[in-house]
């Protein structure tokens, strides 16, 4: 009897389970299979909430292209601004020529990015749930970014296929309707300028918005793009043209572009919302702080921002901090070159080499190690950590050794090495080389005699791997707007307007004797951008648009004579193919009046073995063979 | 058990050897070499800076084989047998490459079937004639004439003429210990160019240098050179 009861219970239980599971399967297939994913958001859900759209826009901003940036210090050493004091990067000074594929920006990723932007714009236009003002701002931002991407492409590749809609493949086996030819170079520049004009009044006109698109950011980009197009037209070269106009701009269009560049720059200047950074009366400190001060910085128009304690931090300070005071056992990688250092003018607006020797070839003795750099453009000490100057309150220790009375050199091969009984009349142990070097071939030592200062974060912990730095990368700043305006006005023949804009930038650098309109030349404009924008990623594009790159980086090697009493420092076409350095030595000759004074020697780091050679075919990067194979309508760039 | 173990090893070795045979190609064996010439005279260029492209169609991945031209104008490549198309890309070398009817760089069909020697005829902008390089009193003195070969609409001016000397046999703008340059504007007579450069101190000491003259043509990347000559002093 009991057993039967038990049995019954089991049967009931089975029945219940069976019932439940059948009832479950009675649901429709779609209700069971179509689940909302929990790891991604569906498109229509995103477009309901401005905060969610912002995360998408954040991703689009994050993919904005840069070539030289503080996240890639080594790119600054590819030309003549700096030496790479890291053993994995010496090759940058040992390759004679640049590959035709260098700086290429045209691949699946690039057009994938453009597709994402086009898709974002299309969905934004279709969405109805957002407030109109939110939606319009997002759309304007995406168009701003898209204009920036096309600008980046045109300056590297020339005209590219201009895709502004979302293209989809229909799996018909015939992709030819997706194959677009390259647009003309002018068409891309015109598109960029027109897009920025169209969105500038939708974007907020608010100088405290610095990491998102604003009216001023759009105008700054417009002014830069128009200036590039104008100078490409003006300095056009018959070899750098293609019959279809994919590369090359007619010189008759130059003035039109310069007029647009000037107008866009003036709109920012006349708006009066931005100004040059002038918080610190010490002009060099002020110039250095301009790049690291993120609180109410009136000069920054558009920047890539970083934040501590997130994964958006960078290691520029770790990589490049002075080795002697470094917070980790590394640093010192990016060494500004003597080529750059001697470009900084003297305060009377004249150019001069660093006075290592006098006119007769005899060494000049300096009581203080910094004396040789005195009386120069304040931007020099704001851009470069000179021997004997300070970073984070600690003096860098850069000196290469002792020179004895007979000319013999006493030095070491490690940071701050001590040697015993090496100096005449001194049997004790002495330090024979600076704690920051320079030691030739020793990575992280100041092999050019200098360390970089621009963008180096003065905050404690910025040199630690566990903390890193949140200094931002400034893409557009007010000084560039002024110099764009000056250049455009100069090219339009209005030298007095140019002089006026140039004066504001030069005053901030302590060059208070204003250049007269008659003194403004093309070479002056080239020089001003070189010293103001060192390590800001302008050099390659400037040299390309002025068609100066093949003259300055012409593959001829240089000698120390080019850095001693040189007379052509202000020349825009001066050869600068190899990076040189300037090493301080202590003169050791007890009893002599010059005992323990400093002398300086121009040196070429031994790791610099080749002279850079920029060929005509480098002006526009080559198009990948995969792109050419996939689309027969694409024509190759000239001279490759 | 032991026997089976050896058997497995034996089988593995057999498989490995078999696969070595099956899926590897032979290395390319045909030599393709020759010189870049103008009317039979080789054209000297900078080391590693001038190359031409060989294209072979019919295989999946369509891309060029680059062949470098040496200092003395010679080249050589190891190739598979087959049909190739040879072309200099625009602005390679100090010469003009002929164009086809469409205005594109024309190609030369090259059939490789065993080793082959072929001189490639090009049209240089200028030729350096009658060059003499001698040493005297711690200097290298050079004399040469320049003959303008292309005189039609494609003609180009001379940007500069340089005399280079170096310790080693690689002598050009990037590899030199001393150089003397005449700018194109300063050339009065193309048939009478004289240059002279002081030989700097060389460590370790050697009693010879290598020298040659290079001509930079305006708007052309690559220079045309004289052959390298070793000069004892």
What does this structure look like?
The complex is a heterodimer of chains A (640) and B (233). Chain A is of the alpha+beta class and 640 residues long. In chain A, 35% of the residues lie in helices and 8% in strands. Chain A has 19 helices and 14 strands. Chain A has a four-stranded mixed beta sheet, with no helix packed on it. Chain A has a two-stranded antiparallel ribbon with strand order 1-3. The mean pLDDT of chain A is 92. Chain B has one helix spanning 2-22, and strands at residues 30-38, 41-42, 50-55, 65-69, 74-79, 82-87, 95-96, 108-112, 116-117, 120-121, 123-124, 126-136, 139-148, 158-166, 178-183, 193-198, 208-217, 224-225, 229-232. Chain B has 233 residues and is mainly beta. The radius of gyration of chain B is 25 Å and the shape is flat. Chain B has two domains: 30-122, Sandwich (Immunoglobulin-like), CATH 2.60.40.1120; 125-232, Immunoglobulin-like, CATH 2.60.40.2060. In chain B, strands 1, 2, 5, 9 and 10 form a five-stranded mixed beta sheet that branches. In chain B, strands 14, 15, 17, 18 and 19 form a five-stranded antiparallel beta sheet that branches. Classes of the chains: A alpha+beta (640), B mainly beta (233).
């Amino acid at each position: 009897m009991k057993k039967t009861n038990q049995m019954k219970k089991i049967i009931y239980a089975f029945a219940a389970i069976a019932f439940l599971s059948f009832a479950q399967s009675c649901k429709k297939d779609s209700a069971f299979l179509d689940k909302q994913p929990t790891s991604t958001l569906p498109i229509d859900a995103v477009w309901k909430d401005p905060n969610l759209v912002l995360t998408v826009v954040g991703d689009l901003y994050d993919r904005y292209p840069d070539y030289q940036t503080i996240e890639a210090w080594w790119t600054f050493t590819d030309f003549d601004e700096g030496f790479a004091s890291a053993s994995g990067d010496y090759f940058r000074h040992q390759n004679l020529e640049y590959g035709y594929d260098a700086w290429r920006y045209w691949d699946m990723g690039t057009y994938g990015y453009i597709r994402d932007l086009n898709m974002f714009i299309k969905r934004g236009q279709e969405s109805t749930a957002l407030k109109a003002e939110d939606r319009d701002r997002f759309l304007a931002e995406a168009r701003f970014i898209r204009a920036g991407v096309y600008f980046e492409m045109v300056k590297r590749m020339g005209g590219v296929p201009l895709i502004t809609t979302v293209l989809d493949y229909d799996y018909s086996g015939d992709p030819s309707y997706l194959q677009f030819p390259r647009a003309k170079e002018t068409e891309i520049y015109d598109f960029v300028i027109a897009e920025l004009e169209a969105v500038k009044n939708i974007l907020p006109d608010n100088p405290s918005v610095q990491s998102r698109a604003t009216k001023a950011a759009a105008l700054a980009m417009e002014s830069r793009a128009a200036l590039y197009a104008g100078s490409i037209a003006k300095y056009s070269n018959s070899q750098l043209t293609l019959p279809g106009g994919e590369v090359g701009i007619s010189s008759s269009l130059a003035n039109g572009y310069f007029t647009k560049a000037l107008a866009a720059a003036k709109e920012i200047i006349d708006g009066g919302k931005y100004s040059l950074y002038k918080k610190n009366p010490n002009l060099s400190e002020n110039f250095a702080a301009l790049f690291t001060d993120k609180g109410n910085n009136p000069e920054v128009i558009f920047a890539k921002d970083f934040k501590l304690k997130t994964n958006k931090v960078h290691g520029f300070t770790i990589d490049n901090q002075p080795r002697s005071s470094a917070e980790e056992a590394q640093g010192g990688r990016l060494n500004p070159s003597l080529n750059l250092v001697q470009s900084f003018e003297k305060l009377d607006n004249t150019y001069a080499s660093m006075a290592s020797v006098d006119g007769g070839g005899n060494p000049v003795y300096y009581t203080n190690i910094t004396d040789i750099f005195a009386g120069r453009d304040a931007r020099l000490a704001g851009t470069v950590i000179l021997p004997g100057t300070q970073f984070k309150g600690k003096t860098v220790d850069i000196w290469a050794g002792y020179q004895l009375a007979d000319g013999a050199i006493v030095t070491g091969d490690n940071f701050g090495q001590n040697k015993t009984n090496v100096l005449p009349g001194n049997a004790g142990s002495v330090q024979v080389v600076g704690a920051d070097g320079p030691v030739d071939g020793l990575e992280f030592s100041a092999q050019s005699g200098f360390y970089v200062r621009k963008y180096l974060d003065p905050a404690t912990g910025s040199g630690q791997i566990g903390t890193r730095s949140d200094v931002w990368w400034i893409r557009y700043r007010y000084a560039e707007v002024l110099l764009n305006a000056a250049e455009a006005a100069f090219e339009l023949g209005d030298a007095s307007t140019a002089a006026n804009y140039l004066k504001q930038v030069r005053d901030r650098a302590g060059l208070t004797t204003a250049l007269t309109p008659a003194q403004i030349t093309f070479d002056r404009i080239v020089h001003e951008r070189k010293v103001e924008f060192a390590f800001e990623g302008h050099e390659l594009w400037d040299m390309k648009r002025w068609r100066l790159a093949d003259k300055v980086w012409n593959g001829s090697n240089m000698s120390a004579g080019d850095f001693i009493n040189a007379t052509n420092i202000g020349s825009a076409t001066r050869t600068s193919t190899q990076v040189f350095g300037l090493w301080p030595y202590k003169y050791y000759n007890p009893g002599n009046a010059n005992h323990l004074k400093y002398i300086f020697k121009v040196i070429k780091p031994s790791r610099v073995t080749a002279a850079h050679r920029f060929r005509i075919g480098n002006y526009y990067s080559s198009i990948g063979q995969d792109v050419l194979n996939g689309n027969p309508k694409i024509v190759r760039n000239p001279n490759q | 058990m032991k026997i089976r173990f050896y058997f497995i090893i034996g089988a593995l070795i057999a498989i490995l050897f078999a696969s070595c045979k099956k899926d590897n190609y032979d290395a390319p064996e045909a030599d393709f070499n020759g010189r870049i010439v103008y009317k039979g005279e080789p054209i000297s260029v900078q080391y590693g800076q001038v190359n031409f492209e060989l294209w072979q169609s019919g295989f999946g991945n369509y891309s060029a084989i680059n062949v470098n031209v040496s200092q003395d104008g010679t080249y050589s490549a190891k190739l598979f047998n087959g049909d190739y198309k040879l072309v200099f890309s625009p602005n390679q070398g100090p010469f003009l490459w002929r164009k086809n009817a469409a205005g594109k760089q024309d190609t030369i069909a090259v059939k490789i079937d065993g080793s082959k020697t072929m001189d490639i005829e090009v049209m240089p902008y200028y030729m350096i004639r009658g060059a003499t390089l001698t040493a005297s009193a711690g200097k290298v003195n050079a004399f040469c004439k320049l003959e303008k070969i292309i005189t039609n609409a494609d003609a180009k001016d001379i940007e500069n003429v340089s005399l280079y000397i170096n310790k080693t046999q690689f002598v050009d703008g990037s590899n030199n210990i001393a150089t003397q340059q005449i700018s194109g504007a300063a050339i009065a007579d193309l048939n009478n160019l004289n240059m002279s450069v002081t030989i700097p101190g060389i460590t370790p000491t050697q009693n010879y240098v290598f020298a040659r003259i290079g001509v930079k043509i305006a708007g052309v990347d690559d220079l045309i050179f004289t052959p390298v000559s070793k000069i004892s002093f």
